Amino acid sequence: GSIGTKVTALAKALGMRVIVSTRNPPAPPGSPAAEDDDESDAASDAGTADGLGSPRRPPLPPPMEDGVVYVGTLDELLEHSDFVSLHCPLNDDTSMLMGKDEFELMKTSAYFINTARGGLVDEEALVDALTSGQIAGAALDVQDPEPPEATSMLWSLDNVVLTPHMGWKRVETRQRLIIKVADNIAKYRAGNPENVVS
Q1: SS3 72
Q2: Is the pLDDT assigned to residue 46 strictly greater than 90?
Q3: φ and ψ at 189, to 5 degrees?
Q4: Catalytic residue among 165, 172, 174, 176
Q5: Are 135 and 102 in contact (CB under 8 A)?
Q6: Active site includes 165?
Q7: pLDDT reading at 113 higher than 80
Q8: Largest CB tally within 10 Å, which of 31, 138, 179, 185?
């Protein structure tokens, strides 16, 4: 999706190797599907910038033309990543996507980032992973519920950063939204619609 794609661009700009697990990876160069694609879809269910990996992990596939390594499973992504950042919707398939088993696959030096939806993560499993040293830390812009219960351990952990998921409330963000809506209306009236949903 657009957010995962932007995170990918930022991570690459910082010199990170990017690993993506997605339902719709781009076709390998030269394959019939690649020749039919006008644009690759980098919609990441879980995008991550990765470090050096570990000798006990199987090697990753080579990067695609965009420099991104696309893996077949979330498990593979988790095993290789130094930073795991979720970018997917919350639905029946993704609810509690990150639980005990998933956190156990991560490196003990890895950081977990969730700016998507709180319901993607089993909070109890996350707290266990953070307090046991299974992962190094977490940054959470979303929780379930929001804000976390007053009794949640997330409030007291030194290796957790919590933010209030309210970036859209800034005046600048709302102004950009109004400008975009007005621009879309003007383009539609001129016969050049943009952001068409069919």
Answers
A1: coil
A2: no
A3: -65, -30
A4: 165
A5: no
A6: yes
A7: yes
A8: 138
pLDDT of residue 36: 45
H/E element holding 149? none
**Whether 146 is catalytic:** yes
Confidence of residue 58 (pLDDT cuts 50, 70, 90): confident
Residue 115, phi then psi, degrees to nearest 5:
-115, 10
Residue among 17, 117, 172, 174 flagged as catalytic: 117
Output the DSSP codes for 165-185: S-GGGSHHHHHHHHHHHHHHH
Local structure of 193: helix, strand or coil: coil
Q: Which has the closest alpha carbon to 107: 55, 152, 68, 157?
A: 55
Upper half-sphere CA count for residue 37 (Cβ side, 13 Å)? 15
The three-class DSSP label of residue 33 is helix
Residues 6+ apart with CB under 8 A from 168: 174, 177
Find out whether 103 and 129 touch, Cβ atoms under 8 Å: yes
Q: Looking at this protein, which amino acid is placed at residue 7?
A: V
> What mean pLDDT do residues 78-99 have?
96
DSSP state letters, 128-168: HHHHHTSSSEEEES--SSSSPPTT-GGGT-TTEEE--S-GG
